[in-house]
Structures are given as structure tokens and as C-alpha cells.
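BUG: 3D viewer hangs when loading the predicted structure for this chain

Environment: internal workstation, default settings.
Expected: structure renders.
Actual: progress bar stalls at 90%.

Input used:
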Amino acid sequence: MNGNVTITDCGDCALVAKAVGLDAEAAWRLVHALADALDTVRLTGVHDVVPTYDALLVEFDCAATDHDTVRRVLAHEAARLGPHPAPTTPPRRFVVPVVYGGEYGPDLPEVAAQLGLAEGEVVALHSGSDLTVRCLGAPAGAPMMDGPPFPGPVPRLPSPRTRVDPGSVAVAGRQAVICPMPSPGGWPLLGRTPVRVLDLHRDPITAYQPGDTFRFLPITPRQWDEYADMTLADCHG
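C-alpha cells produced before the viewer hung:
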């Protein structure tokens, strides 16, 4: 058994494996390694494996398998991995062009005021370091990243927008994200990228995975058309 993983039932057709007794980075690495291991096993009846920051949701068809079977496989893989599994694939780096402020990032002035910074300082911090993708969120596999090194957390909007444009670059709390498709959203918008985040002709439709890093590149509105025909996969490097 791996004493750093607890496994509990979650309703009729799911289990949750949670990393315990580890720091945040080690817990994240462990649950994602466990997700990769379960994907490799391809256990009959399991149809979704969703790793987050320190926990893993495993959903299954209860007509094809059961809690005990999935639990045994999870426990076996957790024991095999140990508390500090080595990464299985090297991370990739994406350099993403962003137009900050104005109609592209309408909340930049408010975020700057909340943080006690100039708008240019917010942009410099947001684009000044590589941000690690920690998990894929909603909608459609949005890249949920570590936030930039702001002096404090960023509050969510008091009233969410009913529509956020695809490519919008947002922050909230101490996290960052790119919205991959039109959707409602309550995160403050700093800017927008002209590149397409999703490629519906790819399998998978996302070019990134947890562990990859994003670096944001400030561009001007006049440069928008230079990148408008690109997908995120074109920004790999």
C-alpha cells in the first residue's frame, strides 16, 4: 500500500484517490502519475479519469465493473509508484502572444488597482515567467495554471459575464487560465490571445497537458493578424 494515497467511494459509479502527507508539488505529481498509470492499465468499465491538484476522480460504468475492482487497481498502482514517482514525459513549453488591456482585457485597470500596481507592472508580472499547467478544467479542457507572482490574490468578479470570448486570458485567486471557447465566466480578464486554443482536427483537441508551461508574450493590437491563423500547437517551443 501507498500510505500517501487514500481511496474513497464517490457515489455509485466513482472513486476519489487523494494524496495525503505530501507538500503541494509532490501531491500534484503523485495524483497525475496515478492518472497516467490508470490510463495505461485501461481497466474495463472505467470511462473517465480526472486528476486535479491533489486528488483523482475515477468514474466507471457500474454495469461493467465495481468499486472494489477499481479500488484494488488504484491501490496496486499507487503502491507501485510510491510517494515520489518520476515524471513519465518531459514538459513542453508554449509561448502565447497576448494583447493586454483595452477591449481585449477590460479588467486590467481594476486588477492593477486591487493589487496596488500600475497596469504595466501587472502585464510584466503576468508575462515575466513560465506558468505551469496543473490540470485541465472547464470548459473544454481549459489550461488551469499557477498564477503569476502578484503581491496578492485577485478577487473574482462580483457579477460573472454571460459570455467570455475564446482566447481570453484571465486570473483569479492565485491561478491563471486561458478560456478555450465561448462561455460564461467570473474571472477578471487581462487580455486575449489571437491563437486558437483548441484544434478540433487534433486528437486530443488540446496541444497541452498538465506539467506543460505557458509563457505569455505581450503584443500590440496591430500584431493581432500576424497570429490569427495559428493554433496553440504552433506556439510550442
